[in-house]
Amino acid sequence: MLNMVFLTNSWLTLFNQPGLCITMAMLLHYFLLAAFTWMCLESVHFYLALVKVINVYVPKYILKCCIAGWGIPAIVITVVLIINKDFYGNGSLSGSHPYSNFCWIQDNTVFYISIVAYFFLIFLMNTAMFITVLVQIHSVKTRTQKTSRFWKR
């Protein structure tokens, strides 16, 4: 959906409908955040599968993942819309904007908080999960090598 909204965004701005532009910018923002959130959930799943292998049962795991994956971005979008729906709009309406005919976030502060900071948090969490998994795999490998040396003797 992120790709579809991105590809149709410039075409739909040609209709010069502010409501349509706000909707397209909001959808683009939502699906981008959803992609980041699902990437984070994949790293959590990776961690659970490779590090916490034994006795890991999360009741209604898929439902919780779906609520987080689709709900957290919806909360961010709702907060932005509640604060000011004019944060979304057409870049060509303001002369100082570097891009034109594209519906997106108009305020730099909102962009940096809701996109860049959000991505940075996801990136930090994914990096931490990846390092944890690598350490776990290395420790398992080391233990199995020690055990095999012991049995060879």
From TrEMBL:
What's its membrane topology? Multi-pass membrane protein
Per UniProt, the keywords (alphabetical) are: Membrane, Transmembrane, Transmembrane helix
In the UniProt record, which is one GO cellular component term?
plasma membrane
In the record, biological process GO terms are:
adenylate cyclase-activating G protein-coupled receptor signaling pathway; cell surface receptor signaling pathway
Protein localization: Membrane
G-protein coupled receptors family 2 profile domain mapped to chain residues: 1-153
Write out the transmembrane intervals: 20-41, 61-83, 110-135
**One Gene Ontology MF term:** G protein-coupled receptor activity
Q: What PANTHER family does this protein map onto?
A: ADHESION G-PROTEIN COUPLED RECEPTOR, ADHESION G-PROTEIN COUPLED RECEPTOR G4
Indicate what this protein is called per its UniProt record: AGRG4 protein
The record lists the organism as Oreocharis arfaki (tit berrypecker)
Lineage of the species this protein comes from: Eukaryota, Metazoa, Chordata, Craniata, Vertebrata
